[in-house]
Amino acid sequence: MRRSILALLLCAAWAGWSAPASALPLLPGDILVVDVNADALFRVDPLTGDRTVVSGCANASCSSFVGDGPGFQSAQRVALALDGSLLVVDDGLDAIVRVSLSTGDRTILSSSAVGAGPALDSPQGIAVKANGTLYVADNAIDALLSIDTATGDRTIVSSAGVGLGAIFDVPLDLVLDPAGDILVADGGTKSVIRVEILTGNRTVISSSGVGGGPDFGSIHGIAMELNGDLIVTDGSALKALFRVDPVTGARSIISSPSVGEGETIHAPRGAAIEKDGSILVGDALSPGSLWRVDPLTGDRTLLSSLGVGSGANFVDPLGVAVVPVPEPSTALLLASGLAAVAVGRSRRSRSSSSRN
What we know:
Elements: H1 2-12, E1 31-35, E2 40-44, E3 51-57, E4 65-66, E5 75-80, E6 86-90, E7 95-99, E8 106-110, E9 123-128, E10 134-138, E11 143-147, E12 154-158, E13 171-176, E14 182-186, E15 191-195, E16 202-206, E17 219-224, E18 230-234, E19 240-244, E20 251-255, E21 268-273, E22 279-283, E23 289-293, E24 300-304, E25 317-322, H2 330-336
Antiparallel strand pairs: 1-2, 1-25, 2-3, 3-4, 5-6, 6-7, 7-8, 9-10, 10-11, 11-12, 13-14, 14-15, 15-16, 17-18, 18-19, 19-20, 21-22, 22-23, 23-24
């Protein structure tokens, strides 16, 4: 039951999202990848692995561009805005960049020159709430900020001076909890931290001292499975994907050189979850690549890389996102008020035969 409600809420969060009619064909299930060194935003076909540059450098030499506007300098993560555009966090520009799907044009949504409030210094993780509010983790000011997508105004939601609890130390990525909190992967403390949006209070939910299982080595990315469990990528010698119980903090390695079949993901970075539960992971090791991981077995399949799929090649694919696949019943459930059912924090019974 908990899995079904979480899946509904995750889909409901994107119920209002749709690509503009004149846009580059972007279909439900398509994969978006930002490459920090190729200075480009890619669309990846989930079946063939073919890569299409949506915005930024069109080739390895960057002799031509897709779209006008300020070029990417160090694109970290990507999220989908409710208006159908794409939002890219760039810590070279110290800005949030809005990308038009119809043209690939890039405009600054928020930076030291656009919007009021504390300046971004090294923005990393990004997520969009169902009401359109944007949240960004900044690892230079060690803060979580909210950003008004209409004005670019920035407000600190949680930091050493806002909220109580564990202090951020290099927050790298974040994911929204359907219950209303934000979960932050913090590289310095090697922990996952829960942030209450209303108060800014921070609680470590998994670290070497919280939750059982193998310790994190060098965490980078975080994603949420449809049942509410967390996937955390670890680029240390472990070269692993962790599954984290958000209630107990218990950690288990679900894919690594010794867990699951397939070639090793040597430098796992950003992660995203597909509708069937498969896990997508960017690998920064040259040549850059995108992997699909079976959430039950940990088996790894190379989806897109040099020689796999056509198009401009990755260099360092860091941020990964999936265009949401709407549930046909979402509108009916919302209209009947069933989506207002409280999300319990009790653990659901896990079925090894299910992969929804």
